[in-house]
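Researcher: I need the complex structure. Ligand is magnesium ion. Inputs:
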Amino acid sequence: MRAESQPLVSVTDVEKHFGDFHALKNINLTIREREVVVVIGPSGSGKSTLCRTINRLETITSGEITIDGKELPAEGAALAQLRSDVGMVFQAFNLFAHKTILENVTLGPIKVRGLSKAEADTQAMALLERVGVAPQADKYPAQLSGGQQQRVAIARALAMKPKVMLFDEPTSALDPEMINEVLDVMVGLAEEGMTMVVVTHEMGFARKAAHRVVFMADGEIVEVAEPEEFFNNPQTPRAQDFLSKLL
Ligand code: ADP
Ligand code: MG
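Model: Output:
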């Protein structure tokens, strides 16, 4: 499957500095269509920064990132359009607090994709159905559980018809009993062939859904391997040390 699929996200020789701090060092990573890549590594290793550079929430110091062959423009309408190709779900459920669940999902498609309200409503209800929160459509985010809010965040991202979905620790802020309801939605997406980059500490998800695991430490990609290989036979001392602390 992956042998024939096209590179969708290409990260080439990327460096990122925050002032004197070297946050991303010589990052090279290609994500192919339909591929699920799990990014793991210690806190502060640059996982979130990498995600944020992929949709230009952060600028890069040097190097190049392309989505479907196109470099992200620096700003303006072209950036909004290309950014909508990259769906993002964060650790914090950053829904619009003063909009209903339905409005949270329809806003982007109406504003950026140019859908009519009726079209956007129909699409949004189907997505809310799919993530299991359709009955909550007219409620406000604060009336939903964390797991429900995170599933709405996934529906909202999907409503933009992204080419790739980035998840940055989507279950880290959830109570344990809600983690699986979010992971199940993500596993479903992976099975349907969505291209995904997932930063997570959920090793069960990585084993079940990932095609490749990317291990980062100190701003570098230290190891890239298939999940079974990575978990059973990590090659570097840093990966061995990280995995031993998870158990
Ligand atoms: P991770 O997601 O792997 O925990 P991050 O990508 O959030 O790591 O952060 C990597 C490093 O970059 C950390 O040391 C963090 O303090 C630093 N960093 C992240 N964002 C900024 C910023 N806006 N300004 C300065 N340093 C930052
Ligand atoms: Mg992070």
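Model: Summary of the prediction. The chain has a mean pLDDT of 93.
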